[in-house]
ABC transporter permease
Amino acid sequence: MRICESALAIAFRHPIYLGVYVLFLSALGTFLTIGVQSGSTRASGSAPAAQQEDGYAPMQASVAVIDRDGSELSAEISAHLGETQELVDIADDSFAMQDALATGLVEAIVIIPEGYEADLLVSARSGEELPALQIAYGTDTQAAALLDTQVARWTALASASAALEPFASASNVAGLVRHASAAHADVSVERDVAAAETARPLQAYLSFTSYSITCSVVVCAGLVLSTMNEDRLRARILAAPVPPRRLGLNTLAACVVLVVAVWGVTSVVGLVASGAFASTAGMLPASIVLALMAMLVFAFVPLALAFTLAQARFGEDALNALGNIGGMLMSFLGGAWVPLSLLGDSVRAVAHFVPTFWTNDAVAAVLGAPVLTMEVLARYACGVGVTALFAVAIACVGLALTRHRV
């Protein structure tokens, strides 16, 4: 017991590390949680009422169509765009069109050139390059991309209809396009409050916590282990009637106490900041407990890393550097800073080789599920199990270094 108390005293002689890595980074995580909560509130509050209650509502853009062809297909293009976009009438004049785009009167202008219908039918049936519509865009890039996709789809349908019906008139081709474009998939929006909104702040906080836990455990536990491994101190301890196994177990117990304390502080801060146990949270208590248990298992990964670094005789400065760099790298590959879906395939492949990926996947599985099914629990067990294997593998490296040193 005296050895355990002495080991804990070594950690508490460095309160700056406990204050910065545990308290300050946990407080920093609360700002991330608040940002996620406010973002979710804005997203849910800014959506149109029809979209929230009845389902999906497509975005509308203000579009002007300049028809210089005056044909049946050009009229069909205008009618097709008018079904999903807001059509605005402007004069066929360069100054008027530039003014409409500059002032935001319209977000895009579609110009149908003269002879477009004849060129389209001939090109489609002869296999040549299709004539292009002239489209001028404003400042709304999203509306421009959607309109460009819609025009390209209509052109593809018209060319396919003309090619499949080589003797069809322009009016018949327009009818075929109208019939084909009317086909669509039914879209509805299903919202699960627990999975979509209320679990997101806690999940974001726990993902960020992988950085603070790694830094604090590697530095604090590493200091304890490296200090206990110093030659003079170790010689004095071994001179006492204390078995080496007892010395190691008491030192390990002190480090486990540090790990549990760090995990407990970060967990309490996260629960309070995210309001996980509020009556309106909508999250399953079992899901919250499982998510916190996953983070506790993860906390033993930096403990194993601290043990390995201490056996390699790394000092205080090296522990600080490696703890910060390692924590930053692992949290990044775990998706704490940038969602992995926004990164490249190579980065996502590398992420599978760090424990934070599996821990965050386990947390997301239980917090994002409205019901804890066997499939969810299997995914959770896989993530936690792989995380535990990382801790065991790193600890084995430390044991190998210990044997080599002896």
